[in-house]
Amino acid sequence: MWRIEVTQEFEDWWHTLSDKGQDRLRGAISVLSQRGPGAGRPLVETLSDSRYPNMKELRVGTVRVLFAFDPLRNAVLLIGGDKRGRWSTWYKQAIPKADDLYDKHLNELREKGQIQ
């Protein structure tokens, strides 16, 4: 099993989802937890416009969760959203936010002495 961590931004977004939306996403997160980096298409796709080559998206319908595996082998769920009606613009807004959140996560690990 791979450990799943979430940012406050992800958690805040999670609470805006309906019960049905949470259930669908919970199933995808469970698969991610079981398969780790081996989870692939159509559930997981690598993003090309991130500063991080390991930035990925979890895909459930039009809902996307941007995440990365950190050096401690945790899947860090950074930010989520629904692309419906914003197919061309959603990534332009979400990827920079996810990159910044991942920067923050890595800096926290450095401050704790867990990574260099």
Question: Helix and strand layout, with pairings?
Answer:
Layout: E1 3-6, H1 8-14, H2 19-35, E2 44-46, E3 55-60, E4 63-69, E5 74-82, H3 90-111
Parallel strand pairs: 1-5
Antiparallel strand pairs: 2-3, 3-4, 4-5
Helix and strand succession?
A: EHHEEEEH
CATH top level assignment: Alpha Beta
Main sheet record: 5 strands, mixed
CATH superfamily assignment? RelE-like
Strand order of the biggest β-sheet: 1-5-4-3-2
Strand content: 25-35%
Shape: globular
Q: End-to-end span in angstroms? A: 25 Å
How much is the average pLDDT?
95
- Secondary structural class: alpha+beta
Could you tell me the number of beta strands? 5
Description:
With about 120 residues, the chain is of the alpha+beta class. It has one domain (about 5-110): YaeB-like fold (2-Layer Sandwich). The protein has helices at about 10-15, 20-35, 90-110; strands at about 5, 45, 55-60, 65-70, 75-80. Strands 1-5-4-3-2 form a 5-stranded mixed sheet. The radius of gyration is 14 Å and the shape is globular.
Essential attributes:
globular, 116 residues, 40% helix, 5-stranded mixed β-sheet, YaeB-like fold, alpha+beta
In short:
The chain has 116 residues and is α+β, with helices and mostly antiparallel strands.
